[in-house]
Amino acid sequence: MDQTLRNHAAALSASLLLLSCGAPEPLGSTAPATPARFDAAQVAHGARLAAVGNCITCHTAPGGKPYAGGYPLHTPFGTVHGTNITPDAETGIGRWSLADFDRAMREGIDPRGRHYYPAFPYDYFTRLTDADIAALYAFVMTREAVRAPEPDNHMLVPRVAVGIWKSKYFHPGRFAPDTSRDARWNRGAYLAESLAHCSACHTPRNKLGAEERDRYMAGGEVGGWHAPALNRESPSPRPWDARKLTIYLWTGLVDDHAITAGPMAPVVRNLAHATRDDVEALASYVAALMQGATGAGPPATPAPPRGEQLTRGAAIYAGACGDCHDRGRAAEGGALRLPLAIALSLPTPANLIHIVRDGIVPLEHEAQPWMPAYKGALTAGQTTDLVVYLRTLSGKPPWSEVEREVKRIEGEAR
Amino acid sequence: MIELDVNGRRHRVEAPGDTPLLYVLRNDLQLNGAKFGCGLGQCGACTVMVDGQAIFSCITPIGAIEGRRVRTVEGLGTVEKPGPMQRAFIEEQAAQCGYCIPGMMMRAQALLEAKPGAGDADVRKALAPHLCRCGTHMRILKAVGRAAKMMGGGK
Amino acid sequence: MSVAFSRRRFLAGGGAIVLGFSLNPRVSAQGARLPGSLERNPMLDSWIGVGGDGTITIFTGKAELGQGIRTALMQVAADQLAVPFERIALVTADTARTPDEGYTAGSNSMKDSGTAILNAAAQARELLVAEAAKRWNVAATSLTARDGAVVAPDGRRLEFREIAPSVPLRSRASAESKRATARNVVGKSIPRVDIPAKVTGGAAYVHDLRLPGMVHARVVRPPQHGAKLTAIDTSAGERMPGVLRVVRDGSYVAVIATQEFQAVRAARAISDTAKWEGRLPPVDVYPHLLGLASQDTVIHDRDGANLGAAAIDAVYRRPYQMHGSIGPSCAVGLLEGGKLTVWSHTQGVYPLRGAIAEMLGMEKESVRVIHMEGAGCYGHNGADDAGADAGLLARAMPGRPVRVQWMREEEHSWEPYGPAMVTRARAALDNGRIAGWEFDVWSNTHSTRPGKAGELGPASLLAKPFPPSAPRPLPQPEGGGDRNAIPLYSIPRAKVTHRFIPEMPLRVSALRALGAYMNVFSIESFMDELAAAARADPVEFRLRHLEDARGTEVIRAAARRFGWSEYARTPGKGRGFAFARYKNLAAYCAIAMEVEVMRESGEIRVGRVAAAVDSGEAVNPDGIRNQIEGGVVQSLSWTMLEEVTWDARRITSRDWGRYPILRFAHVPASIDVDVIDRPGQPFLGTGEAAQGPAAAAFANAVADATGKRIRQIPFDPPRVRAALLENR
User: Fold this and answer.
1) Are residues A111 and A259 in the same domain?
2) Which residues on B lie below 8 Å from A366 (Cβ)?
3) d(CA A361, CA C615)
């Protein structure tokens, strides 16, 4: 097991050692729901909310049935699996009452009184209105029931200790609008801070896995990718505005910005099933956060490559990338000119390395642009040279540890 | 002048380093196996093995290939002495127009060399980058399964 | 099972010794019609040549498209001539060497060429036997042909090559033949002779042709057919390394370079400077199509349909779809001494020759078109246009072979598509039977094949362009957009109308099965809708209306193979059935399949597929199976995923990312094909028999699984998901 993981687990366990915690009481069981009890309009509303929440991604195993759980979430404290939230009576939540559901979502406690690991973002869902909770409940209770027992989690921290973590870092409570802002901003803030839980990925976390709220939306890590800063520290070479963000969140592709990739891609896919109004609201909230981001673009003409590594990297670029990326999107078969690609401007090369290796490939039925995968074609050394060269196109200082990152990502893929 | 190692033989090639490997294989080395299907890394018809891994030769510049071992379908055997992968495809009659087949074979060869016990699900997944427009998929899967048995693995 | 081959069959000239060869396309003036393509090419030596080394060379005007026709025709010839399979050589479509059999299309190869070769070979055999009889002064009836020789009862033996010089093969075929009945290789799944080279890197395709001094070309093509060039800067490419010529003629621009990648880069550089002007139809194309003028023909009228108000009514839609050949089109041209040779994967070497000659202002006799294989074409793709490119560019560089390779984006945006179509089905039931039936199909033409220079894409771009010919519907019984629009079922009152739309919003032509894909999809979906209304089992409902015994047999066979009557439905899964006889003339095919529908995503997984096919005498049963399997998968790809897209500026389906087709994750779990062999029966074309039934079986299975009937192709996940969310 990774040393970093052990460090995190040790830190958490040490801080909890001397504290006691009281386990919450289980709720008495109430009658489980049946689909006939739910109004079609409410179910449809719940579906649109679930799209914003991107519930399906964390609650569906790769190749598995929708919402039947089994999706592994790798955290610094071990691996936990998204649960089966289909209405199966034995292995899903078929026996849950609305009260059970509400307590899970708002307080992070299951009907047996056990804590959920905060990989389940109840610290966001706690802000939902009662009506939205009820609509989400109607939605999950009308999914196809799938019998799928939960895989074993491998968490280094016992569930009972989560209570202590929660006492320090979890603040339950409904969303409170900011009356100095307009309705659209408040709608966006509500969605972002509840269902969309953007900051769960886009805010840095401390060693105990809690968000550093004083660095809200200053960038985070998820699944080996970097989630860029969405505040005034945004590294985007071109600034964002609400219009562009709307199109990006709605389609994944806009103007002079890179295509969505990595863990953000399923978010965008799901937002296509949300309402346009809600997507615009999210966009306007994020755009407001980004106020003051400089969007200082790269140097107009990057300096010619000097030194052996940059010369090698430039040669690889010319042979593998330039025929598309030199020409810009307007050209037939052209692709984004890379100085505009945010992956080159991030604090870490991880995203760029993923993209070079795996390309950006649509789902099998999607009609989308396609960047091919170069893993295997380029050795680790060549990938390193290329990534080091590409960084020079951003105008930002060089990354350190590129070679190590390439090897790490290569190793993970095996 | 770039030196390439293809199917165990060394070649010196005049083409500039940013030329995709596919054009060099076909035009400079007169090897027919790797095919131009899209030039975009989307269809797999150009697939060859480099250092044991299956790659798209249409997007890989020869400058990145110098000093590495390239294998094409010609390196798996000949008409007179076909190798196990080739025999399997012939025995299963796993081709209609046949244009996509060498690429499929190289991907399958790379899979079976790395994972001799690969089963049907592994093969389907490994072949995801490959398109076949004639609809020969079922036979291709059977042929790879047969090759796996011939190569001493497979279920 | 494997058969050793010592010969490499490579088509660039060379072949067995041929006695004489006359091209006499005149139709036989008197007497009965000659079988198959003999009618148009009646001289026996057009088809058969006996070599001095014991090889028999067969000439066919048809082309190997990957459908296995080369091997099948050799099997037919081998058995009729009583020659071992290994000694048969086959020369395919070449305007200098083979008969003119039009296009390799319509699943007519076995019917036209197979029948001609069968009869020509049988008659040649009889002539050889007669010659031996003459020499030995015995009765011909006492002699047998065996292993490439004539054998007497006392063991005397004369090899064919010994007697061939004296045999009058340059003679007209008769209408009757004495068929050899022994099936030594016919009826067996002889391994295809072309596969070994294809899996070992042998030169197998026109793409592999390399000629001394050959140069490479790329065309700078408009974003879609019909666009005209308004601005361009060719100097961008002229300066680039290796560029020999930049050709410009009106809107036609091409680059010729020494090395292939040099041509690619130069063409791209020039293309980036080009500005085009053209118009595209509205994105919502169905209302637009239906608003265009149509020429309406009633193609079937049995007492009119006479439907009342209670008739069941359904409208179906199918978008533009592409051939999407996995290898983009390619051709090589060489102009030398006033003679032009074009190597092409066209389906019709003679029509293409005529069109190219017209385009270049040359005599037909000065142009030779030689077929070499391409990737599967599935109809009229870019091959003919690429042949035209090769002709134009060979003329620009006389004395040097010019190779033109299309890029992926060109093939996607420029090839003629399968036309968008709308159908409407209405019917009334009486006591569980169909009492009245009305079917209308709206479609463009399904063929703009050359013939004429106006049908060559490049010719429309020249400064003096060749205008396209006026499109005309292909007549019944074959039909174009109305192919298979008349159901095979027995229906007391029925009316079928073909609404032919001449104006083509996008360039279209023949895509495998032509209108049959959509018409069978519609009719067989509708049959299920009627069966449901009649509360009948879908298979039983079809049998109720079918009087054709061979049709009945394939239906029962497919149902049995699938386990139709024992099927137990599980949640999310469903089964579907469909049947058709291609063109109501060719092969019979019935298909049953199971699907699973994922409600949340709209994704569909295909489980088991069971098919039964009757192709008449099955020359190569495995070849038939291969065609049906392939047809099922291809049809599923069309039906589940495919539609050409465009915006105001250009076709946007430019690569596999924007025009996805089925990949391994979504092909069926299994496909079983039962081939019903009928020795002695006429060959029935099979290459296009599965497309329609597979689409309908799929649609019916989806309806069975979900209770929702979808009538618009493709059934992509967003459409399926939306249909499932709809309240109906």
Assistant:
1) no
2) none
3) 41
